[in-house]
């Protein structure tokens, strides 16, 4: 991770006004944070906490009432900053009458990507999200999960340095969620900076380096996820295999005499997501037919490792 | 440019896949094919030609104008409401590119539809019947004339002389100031000059824009009124000459009042002349007094190209007008939400159609207060007056040239000046507008 700040927000405040320009809602209040290059930063909070408003200010779709905001060293409305940003909105804001391929073609053209390169990237992205077989179907016919996948592909078409994902796993099945999280981790390893917002805490915990928790438009907590979640007053010991009763008794007696307290015992559990994925993987091996979404492949090759030494354009 | 074309392409996709375009195409087909069958003309082939062009093409253009405004107003407003702009605006696209892309896409659709309508109307014109009707039918229906108005006779000098004389003779009350009296005298002189009593004559000065060719035929087009009711015809004599030689060509005429009439004049004797005089002598035995309307009482028509060229000019003019209306719609959509944008754009279009009547007269002497009160009206009049729609289709239907001045006015003022101002305003408002405002 580099020390270069990709996002700098200082005293960010947004008030929404009514028809008569009177302040009505203070959606974001005095929010300050920085996101470094290569970091996966999570924006957490319940509905109405100011996550989406903050993201829309980062994208130049809303203008801060107060405070300063720099994205990739520029004003968020500067097209030079936008050319290095990818955005996956919470809902599908795609044109329903375009096919999957036309959709990516359109957004590729907006980034002025040369036709040959555009075609290569579209093929790789469709392969990556498992929708190569549906490239000629209109987006309006897609399920929500398929739309999210196309939404993700359009967010990556410009090989962005900063990727902003608003509720990235919303509408995805557990396999899609896992793939999304794996992709986020892979992209981060390649040097991309990722800011994501979610209220699915497990998703955030799995992928984020740092988080900021908002409530009522204000920052309630922020920091590295490890620091925030660690309970330093308790210790868990993991033993490699099941112990016989006599050995277990000896270990527990030793702990009791050393600490003067009764230790708690349980067996580690798989989480439900992991179990579900194993079941589906087993079923997939036994059947040959695929439905809606095909098998997603590895990350698109064009999504290059970001050279942290390259100067900003 | 690639970004603008991509956005234009989306605007075309959106328009083509909407049900409105299907309805529009059906309505255009009714206007072009159905309307000429339902409207009864005067029974002549020329009448059919006029109806086909004026009503069918006119109705089709009105539909296209309405659709342009509609589609323009919704193109950005609907995209903001459906939130698709929240993805578009996060790409490296300038707001001006969004405005231009939307406008361009709609104009490509407009151009395709207007061309289809123009070609269909052209194919449905009774050309063969017109050509077969007279010996020189083919040439006659294809002939287009440029209408030359007489030199403006404001009679200002004569009015000033009369004012001095009448003041000296004490014929003007002292409480009437000079400018009021001068204007009244001027009006009186203009009306008097338009009146031709029995046995009297009226002469107009006409400057031709070019020298006539000996083999050409020009036409005198005129219309007069009388105070007498139920007259079939009034007898008179038309004389054409030059200031140096007042009588070069002359012919007797017997024409019905209140209807536009035209007389063919061989240009052979008038070749190489630019300054002409046209005189009408009232020889009516019944002693009828005639009045030529100062605005359009007399015109000299000189040959000016073919029907196809003239038709093309009219279509270009209509297309430029559509460009302006589309800009109006797109800008309204950039400022307001869709129902408001639609209402504002439609209201402005109807107001723009009143431009032809925006001739308020505030020449009377004013105090500062009345100047202040009338200032908004003057401003509105100034803004509206270039927005009138020249009667291009009526001209084509009547065999008159679609004037270059009309084309220049629409291209320069409506399309470039007003259209450019609307583009600048739309872009500025889009720049200022927050595109992800929640509904609160």
Terminus-to-terminus distance of chain A: 20 Å
User: Largest chain interface and its two residue counts?
Assistant: A-B, 30 and 29 residues
Q: Compute the separation of the termini of chain B in Å.
A: 37 Å
Tally of strands of chain A: 9
How much is the radius of gyration of chain A in Å? Answer: 23 Å
Short description:
With 313 residues, chain A is α/β, with parallel strands linked by helices. In chain A, 35% of the residues lie in helices and 21% in strands.
Topology:
The complex is a heterodimer of chains A (313) and B (440).
Chain A lengths: L4 E13 L5 E14 L3 E5 L6 H8 L7 E6 L7 H4 L2 E4 L11 H11 L4 H15 L14 H13 L5 E5 L7 H16 L3 E6 L2 H7 L2 E6 L2 E7 H5 L15 H15 L12 H15 L27
Helix pairs in contact in A: 3-4, 4-5
Chain B lengths: L1 H15 L2 H20 L6 H37 L3 H4 L6 H30 L2 H7 L3 H6 E6 L7 H13 L9 H17 E2 L4 E7 L9 E6 L1 E3 L7 E8 L7 E7 L5 E6 L8 E8 L7 E3 L5 E9 H29 L2 H16 L14 H17 L7 H6 L6 H29 L8
Antiparallel strand pairs in B: 1-11, 2-10, 3-9, 4-8, 4-11, 5-10, 6-7, 6-9
Helix pairs in contact in B: 1-5, 2-3, 2-5, 3-5, 3-10, 3-11, 5-10, 5-14, 8-9, 10-11, 10-14
Overall description:
The complex is a heterodimer of chains A (313) and B (440). Chain A is an alpha/beta fold and 313 residues long. The longest helix of chain A is centred in the middle third of the chain and has 16 residues. Chain A is globular. Chain B has 14 helices and eleven strands. Chain B is globular. Classes of the chains: A alpha/beta (313), B alpha+beta (440). Chains A and B meet through helix 2 and helix 3 of A and helix 1 and helix 4 of B.
């Amino acid at each position: 991770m580099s020390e270069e700040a990709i996002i700098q927000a200082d005293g960010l405040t947004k008030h929404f006004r009514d028809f008569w320009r009177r302040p009505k809602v203070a959606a974001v209040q005095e929010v300050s944070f920085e996101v470094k290059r290569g970091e996966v930063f999570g924006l957490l909070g319940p509905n109405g906490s100011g996550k989406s408003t903050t993201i829309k200010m980062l994208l130049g779709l809303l203008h801060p009432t107060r405070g300063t905001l720099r994205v990739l060293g520029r004003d968020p409305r500067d097209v030079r900053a936008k050319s290095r940003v990818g955005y996956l909105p919470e809902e599908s804001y795609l044109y329903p009458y375009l096919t999957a391929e036309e959709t990516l073609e359109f957004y590729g053209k907006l980034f002025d990507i040369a036709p040959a390169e555009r075609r290569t990237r579209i093929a790789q992205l469709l392969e990556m999200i498992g929708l190569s077989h549906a490239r000629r179907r209109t987006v309006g016919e897609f399920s929500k999960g398929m739309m999210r996948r196309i939404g993700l592909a359009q967010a990556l078409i410009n090989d962005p340095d900063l990727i902003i994902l608003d509720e990235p796993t919303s509408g995805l099945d557990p396999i899609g969620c896992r793939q999304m999280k794996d992709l986020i981790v892979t992209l981060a390893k390649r040097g991309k900076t990722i800011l994501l917002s979610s209220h699915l805490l497990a998703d955030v915990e799995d992928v984020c380096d740092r988080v900021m928790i908002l409530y009522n438009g204000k920052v309630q907590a922020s920091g590295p996820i490890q620091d925030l979640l660690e309970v330093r007053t308790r210790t868990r010991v993991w033993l490699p295999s099941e112990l016989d009763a006599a050995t277990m008794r000896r270990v527990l007696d030793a702990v009791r005499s050393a600490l003067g307290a009764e230790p708690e015992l349980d067996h580690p559990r798989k989480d439900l997501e992991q179990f579900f994925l194993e079941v589906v993987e087993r079923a997939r091996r036994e059947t040959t037919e695929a439905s809606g979404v095909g098998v997603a492949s590895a990350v698109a090759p064009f999504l290059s490792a970001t050279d942290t030494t390259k100067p900003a354009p | 440019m690639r970004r603008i074309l991509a956005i234009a392409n989306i605007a075309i996709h959106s328009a083509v896949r909407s049900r409105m375009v299907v309805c529009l195409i059906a309505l255009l087909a009714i206007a072009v094919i159905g309307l000429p069958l339902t409207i009864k003309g005067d029974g002549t082939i020329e009448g059919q030609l006029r109806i086909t062009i004026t009503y069918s093409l006119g109705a089709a253009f009105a539909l296209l104008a309405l659709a342009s405004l509609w589609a323009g107003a919704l193109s950005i407003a609907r995209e903001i409401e459906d939130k698709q702009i929240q993805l578009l605006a996060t790409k490296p696209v300038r707001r001006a590119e969004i405005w231009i892309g939307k406008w361009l896409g709609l104009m490509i659709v407009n151009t395709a539809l207007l061309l289809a309508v123009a070609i269909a109307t052209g194919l449905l014109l009774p050309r063969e019947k017109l050509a077969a009707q007279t010996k020189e039918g083919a040439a006659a229906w294809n002939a287009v004339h440029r209408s030359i108005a007489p030199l403006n006779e404001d009679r200002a000098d004569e009015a000033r002389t009369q004012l001095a004389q009448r003041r000296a003779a004490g014929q003007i009350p002292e409480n009437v100031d000079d400018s009021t009296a001068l204007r009244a005298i001027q009006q009186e002189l203009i009306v008097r000059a338009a009146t031709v009593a029995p046995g009297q004559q009226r002469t107009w000065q006409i400057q031709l824009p070019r020298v006539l060719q000996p083999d050409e035929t020009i036409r005198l087009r005129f219309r007069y009124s009388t105070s007498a009711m139920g007259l079939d015809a009034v007898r008179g004599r038309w004389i054409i000459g030059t200031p140096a030689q007042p009588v070069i060509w002359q012919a007797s005429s017997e024409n019905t009042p209140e209807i536009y009439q035209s007389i063919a004049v061989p240009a052979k004797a008038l070749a190489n002349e630019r300054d002409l005089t046209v005189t009408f002598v009232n020889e009516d035995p019944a002693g009828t007094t005639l009045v030529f309307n100062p605005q359009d009482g007399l015109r000299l028509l000189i040959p000016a190209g073919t029907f196809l060229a003239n038709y093309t000019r009219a279509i270009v003019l209509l297309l430029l007008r559509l460009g302006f209306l589309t800009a109006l719609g797109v800008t309204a959509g950039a400022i307001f939400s869709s129902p408001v944008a639609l209402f504002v754009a439609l209201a402005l279009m109807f107001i723009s159609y009143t431009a032809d009547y925006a001739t308020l007269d505030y020449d009377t002497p004013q105090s500062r207060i009345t100047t202040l009160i009338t200032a908004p009206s003057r401003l509105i009049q100034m803004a509206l007056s270039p927005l009138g729609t020249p009667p291009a289709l009526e001209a084509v239907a009547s065999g008159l040239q679609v004037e270059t001045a009309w084309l220049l006015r629409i291209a320069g003022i409506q399309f470039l000046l007003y259209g450019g101002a609307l583009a600048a305003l739309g872009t500025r408002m889009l720049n200022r507008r927050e595109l992800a405002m929640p509904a609160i």
